[in-house]
Amino acid sequence: MNKVNRKVLNMVYAAVFAAMIFALTRFIQIPVPGGAGYLHFGDAMIYIVASTLGGPWALLASALGAALADLSSGFAVYAPISAIVKVLISLPFVLVNKKSEKILTPLTICLTIPSGVITVLGYFLGDLIVNRAYAVADIPMNIVQAVASAIIFVVISAAFDAAKLKKKLFINNKK
């Protein structure tokens, strides 16, 4: 595949993943008691895009999908914070994105831990800027978000690996 076609294909993949991140964040929301936000499945898709597409395309899809979900969910003030946090949670996966034919590996399972820590710390710092009253109160729910994202990542990745999607869509097309 030539360089121009590869770039166009990566743009298409990034757009599709951004849409999936948006949909899993925006439309599968579990409200947090007290109205301080919501839990969602978008972070699991962020881990998947970073494990498959990698590079700047995964970072762009992660930031865009999450920010658009915040903008359309009534949490527009969090859109820039989410964009930054989501780029940061994808980084561990992008930095070690290997040519493995599988998404779900012992390494990617372990990478959900630093990404979860980044989620908790990132939103804590974001809450300090946006609304200090929620900064400490949101920590437990952000921990739940991180753990739930890791679990959903394992489930979705196992299904994608069973269908050999990474090999079919990403590895074979890099030649």
Helix count, per DSSP? 8
Encode the helix/strand succession as letters.
HEEHHHHHHH
Low-confidence stretches: none
How much beta, percentage-wise? under 5%
Give the CA-CA distance, first to last residue: 6 Å
Which descriptor suits the 3D outline? globular
What does this structure look like?
With 175 residues, the chain is mainly alpha-helical. Helices cover 74% and strands 2% of the residues. The protein has helices at 3-26, 42-52, 55-72, 79-95, 106-130, 132-135, 139-162, 165-171; strands at 30-31, 38-39. Strands 1-2 form a two-stranded antiparallel sheet. Strand 1 (30-31) and strand 2 (38-39) form a beta hairpin. Helix 1 (3-26) packs parallel to helix 3 and helix 5 (106-130) runs antiparallel to helix 7 (139-162). The protein starts with a helix and ends with a helix.
In a nutshell, what does this entry contain?
By secondary structure, the chain is an all-alpha fold.
Question: What does the secondary structure layout of this molecule look like, with pairings?
Answer:
Layout: H1 3-26, E1 30-31, E2 38-39, H2 42-52, H3 55-72, H4 79-95, H5 106-130, H6 132-135, H7 139-162, H8 165-171
Antiparallel strand pairs: 1-2
Helix pairs in contact: 1-2, 1-3, 2-3, 2-4, 2-7, 3-4, 4-5, 5-7
Descriptive terms for the model:
single chain; 175 residues; mainly alpha; two-stranded antiparallel sheet; 8 helices; 2 strands; 74% helix
